[in-house]
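Subgroup meeting minutes
Present: P.N., E.W., G.H.
Scribe: E.W.

1. P.N. recapped why we're keeping a running log of single-chain structure predictions: easier to compare across weeks, and new members can see raw inputs and outputs side by side.
2. G.H. added today's entry (320 aa).
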Amino acid sequence: MKFLCALALSIATLSPALAADVYPSKPITMITAFPAGGPTDTNARILGRGIGEQLGQPIVIDAKPGGGSTIASAYVTQAKPDGYTILYNTSSLLLGKLLYRSAKFDPLTDFVPVARTVGVPLVVAVNLSVPVNNLKELQDLAKSKPGVLNYASSGTGTIDHLAGALLSKELGIDIVHVPYKGTAPALIDVAGGRIDVMVTTLNTLLPYIKDKRMKPLAIASLNRSPLLPDVPTVAESMNLSGFEITAWNGIVAPAGTPPEAVARINAAVNKTLQDKSVMKQFHDSGAEIYGGSSENYGAYLKSELNRWQTVINDVGIQPQ
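Output recorded in log:
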């Protein structure tokens, strides 16, 4: 009897370590907030395959679009925090909370950060009839005609809307925001000369730039992009050290997810991002590769939340 009790105690003592050793023992579901076929879904699937190979279990992609990404985010907060449900998120995790009253979650306390993955820098571009060739000339033109120039976005509260507002603030200019219902109609009107400026992702603008339907003035990344080597950064154009706006992606899990599970997924993410074929796929699409610790991603989320809260307050957007 004493032997059986001792054996049971030993097993109970070892079970957490054993559990950590066998995690994951079944497929992991990665929730996304965007429909299949889009750039975020594509990124999630590229990473999902690599993470699954590293962990020895498949990553199942489950899209739950709608509500400005709040549906997917809220779903994950209600999931069991056992390491088998994670969220492939974008900045919409933060913007959803700031812009929608229906978002009852806190992006900093209801999730545990796992890893920042990749991001695509935004580019400032103008239609061909705008008589400027760089960001300084755009600033001078806008200052000479306050409230006359305009910029398009894919909708109020989107990253390209807020990026345009932030850039206008940094340059000290007054240009009018024109929201569209989606990126495609906005691009058509900028390329067609009906709208002056657009600030959106590199991969979105690249076909228009290559076909000479729009002029790139600057890229909002820390370094120039190999895809647009002649286009200067915003920082070097306007002496705005450290200025960066990217449409970034990352992975979070429900609060309370075991640290061992977070650590294993983080390690798998970082290993995947170092794979040459994965790196090529992302670089070819204009994406920058991040990786790093879960702690660094947590600090980044906090800084981004504060940054966009300030911009939203400045613009005067009210939560819907």
